[in-house]
Amino acid sequence: MKKKRIEQNEIKRYFLIIAAFLSFMILSLLFFLSWLQQDVEVSSRKTVATNIERQSYHLKSVLDIQFNYLTGMASYMGEREDLFCQENKRLIQSIVKEQDLNLIGIMKADGDTYYNNGARKNVKNRGYFKKVMQGQKIMSPPLESKVDGRTKVILAVPIYRNGKVTGALGASYNVGALNQMLFNDIYDGIGFSMIIDTSGKIISCDSGLSYRKIGIDDNVYDFYTKSGEVAEETMKSAKANIKKQKSGILVLKEKNAMSYLAYGPLHINNWMLCYMVPQRKAQEEFQFIGNREVILFAVIGVGMITFLILIFQRTSMKQKKMREIASRDGLTQLYNKAGTEQRIKEWLHSDRSKAGAVLMMMDVDYFKQINDTYWSCSRRQSFI
Question: 299-330 b/e with 16+ CB inside 10 Å = b?
């Protein structure tokens, strides 16, 4: 009984050591995977922020090209005494056909304007006209067309003659279409973009997207705060960044889904370019890491199971061998008292006992003394 209790205690200690080892391995692995996931999170956010920065620069470059194009045409028109001459009229009509500009108008110093479609009106009270007549190239605040509902801006450049501003050349530009076009090749078109001002008002945004709940009439700050997707303190920080024309990124949380809302300055009218993309799509390029994690778990799991099986087999064989050694006499290799009793009990509980058997006992005088003497000698020789 005592020997059995000792064996049970040894097995218990053995299991405790294995359990401690497995716990350490699992915790280490979980820590590593958590650390790896944090790296993926940081990297995916940086990628979204970088895309915003690049597209913001691209949008400004496109607008600068349009300004430069208008400036070149204005320089050519300024060489004519009459801004409304037939040559200038034909020129703006040809510009519309070749460029992404919509309605183009030649404006005189008194505000009288001639458009490429033949229409005429006076724009002297418009804010952009007053600024452009001061020699500035200007992009007006957004105007929503009552005809097609598109968001447009007026690009206007001064027309000089003999070093003086004698008029202006202006064109309406569908900035909303450009805004949408910028992100068509990013994240397979998943996500949507917006242009907002410092107050959070939406100037333009993609249309027709079923998952885009925010609309042109919403305020970005109020919408995402009231929906609970962004905490008020977090939104306050974003507001401060936008007012300072700094880039940043918001994490939108809705039920079990998360999205990134990145924003960056356009350096035009203090506008900000925003882009929202689901987290799963933003992290899609890092999906191979998740696949490697599954393989890593499988390899480690198989290795640990194999390791445990080998240890259990080896331990079982060792314990069996130790029990066998403990049940025999060291010199004669005959069963000792404990070993004999165990064999008798095993035989009595087996089916062989039903057939009957004979137990023969032999007594040898002074055998213990002889055994102890030779056993001691054999032990001394083994040490030598």
Answer: eeeeeeeeeeeeeeeeeeeeeeeeeeeebeee
List CB contacts of 117: < 8 A, sequence separation 6 or more. 103
Question: Using the 8-state DSSP alphabet, how is residue 328 labeled?
Answer: B
CATH architecture of 183-282: 2-Layer Sandwich (3.30)
- Structural domain spans, the chain: 60-168, 183-282, 289-326, 330-384
pLDDT band for 347, please (50, 70, 90 cuts): confident
Cα distance between residue 302 and residue 35, in whole Å: 23
**What does the alpha-carbon distance between residue 104 and residue 170 come to, in Å, rounded to a whole number?**
6
Are the beta carbons of 195 and 273 closer than 8 angstroms? yes
**Cα within 13 Å of Cα(69), Cβ side:** 18
Orientation angle between helical segments 287-326 and 2-77, nearest 10 degrees: 170
d(CA 346, CA 352): 10
Same fold, 60-168 and 183-282: yes
Beta carbons within 10 angstroms of residue 274's beta carbon: 24
- Summarised one tens digit per residue, pLDDT across range 11-69 is 677 677 777 877 887 888 788 778 877 888 888 888 888 888 888 888 888 888 888 98
From first CA to last CA, the distance across the chain in angstroms is 36
The amino acid at residue 317 is: M
Q: Which residues of 3-17 are buried (b: 16+ CB within 10 A; e: fewer)?
A: eeeeeeeeeeeeeee
Say if residues 104 and 116 touch (Cβ distance below 8 Å): yes
List CB contacts of 207: < 8 A, sequence separation 6 or more: 176, 180
Structure tokens at 130: 């007053």
Question: 99 in helix, strand or coil?
Answer: coil
The CATH architecture to which 60-168 belongs is: 2-Layer Sandwich (3.30)
Pair of tokens at residue 37 = 């996931």
The rounded Cα 354 to chain-centroid distance in angstroms is 74
User: For residue 8, is pLDDT > 90?
Assistant: no
Q: How far apart are the C-alpha atoms of 101 and 116, rounded to whole Å?
A: 11
The structure's pTM equals 0.63
Sign of CA dihedral 276, 245, 154, 163: negative
